What does this fold into?
Amino acid sequence: MSDAAPAPRRVRVHHLRQAKERGEPITMLTAYDAVTAGIFDEAGIDVLLVGDSIGNTMLGYSGTIPVTVEEMIPAVRAVSGAVRRALVVADLPFGSYEASPEQCLATSVRMFKEGGAHAVKLEGGAHLAEHVALLTRSGIPVVGHVGFTPQSENLLGGKRVQGRDDEAAERLVGDALAVAQAGAVAVVLEMVPAAVAVRVSEVLEVPTIGIGAGSDVDGQVLVWTDMAGMTSWSPRFARRFAELGAELRGAAQAYAQAVRGRTFPAAEHSFE
Ligand SMILES: Nc1nc(=O)c2c([nH]1)NC[C@@H]1CN(c3ccc(C(=O)N[C@@H](CCC(=O)O)C(=O)O)cc3)CN21
Ligand SMILES: CC(C)C(=O)C(=O)O
Ligand SMILES: [Mg+2]
It folds into this structure.
């Protein structure tokens, strides 16, 4: 018992604000299952987001719109059960929170009780301030998400950079401020001009987490399959830190060749 590795200190929501004050960038990746969550946790990633990007990455949908709470919860449970240190944030999927603060609270409570989440994330600005405030009063930390919000892709006219002209930039700053003032513990900024992301980061006391928002924000998030080069296409704002897709294909090919050549299984994989 005494030689077991000591449990790492858990990342808590107040650590996010501390990291911003110290100027230490916050690291965040998506995760959708226990295997990858355990690996990212061991790697020291601070925050794991069970994103509704599970729709396009794991479930084979064309985007995030079809994703349901029923599909999210098993993934949230798998990730929260696999981490020792990381903070686990559950995305609220499209249609599960917008209608009212009460609907938002009911869905978030499920993410906590059934999924074991530590925080939830929702897309939107000032119009969701009451939602954020009710969750916060109820003890549920909220991460905001402004700029390009994929759940409203149809209204925004596609996957486009948001906050380009002065008026849109002002609106974006106002939206980020509104969710922060309502109690959000961090705000994701997706696909916004780097200069606008800097302004938001200066105005907010809570950290900004960028994705396609430049380097002068308080943290970064990427979809893990983009970060690891699992698929042939990845968005312009993502760097491929590995080519895991090619690596995995190679492993599958080597396995198939060994089976066909009867070199696997060998004696050590067989029983007397
Ligand atoms: N794999 C994946 N990566 C993501 O970053 C991601 C998801 N899925 N799903 C949820 C949202 C949707 N996001 C996306 C998805 C695609 C583009 C995209 O197609 N970008 C184009 C530029 C489009 C344009 O400028 O018109 C690109 O080439 O990067 C951007 C953001 C970000 N999130
Ligand atoms: C892109 C990130 C921020 C996200 O919301 C997701 O992965 O669903
Ligand atoms: Mg999302």
